[in-house]
Model the fold of this input.
Amino acid sequence: MNKTALLQTISTIVGSKLQLAVLFSFLIFFIPAFVHQQFLTGPIINALLILSFIYLGKSKALFLALIPSTVALSRGLLPLALAPMVPFIMISNCLYIIIFAKLQAKSQTKNFLAILLAALAKTTFLFVISKLLMEKILVATLASKIAMMMSWPQLWTAVVGGIMALLISQALQKKYVSR
Done:
């Protein structure tokens, strides 16, 4: 069946689309607040961003994309030196969702490729911005470390999170729609 049937089934299980939005908001807000390991938090947040797009739509997902980096900075997951990067991290999360939205297809293989391309775009954006911005305001050694943080770890967390989201969505579709 299609996404609409799946959304109706999930809405019935959760109670309503509003409750699903509240659940995603709660998780996106509290996971960075309490889980201080980027290699755990990053994939979970990226998965939630893709799942929020799949089940709530682009506008709600884009709104939710603004939350995690602010929470991560305020709770100490992001070093204070990364504070100037927060708006760009927000933009990169939105870019991740928008590119996935444009490239998604009915084929799961194409969706995996869409995740990879969205993750590459997100990572490239963050790396370039971090190089340009941080080299202007920080000493070279610290700027270099921040640029490294905005490279392969971002790619890894975006790819893993996106794949997790696709697998979760596929499992839900098989369980609740294929009946």
User: Anything to note?
Assistant: The chain is about 80% helix and 0% strand. Residues 6 and 173 are 6 Å apart (CA to CA). The first helix runs from residue 3 to 14.
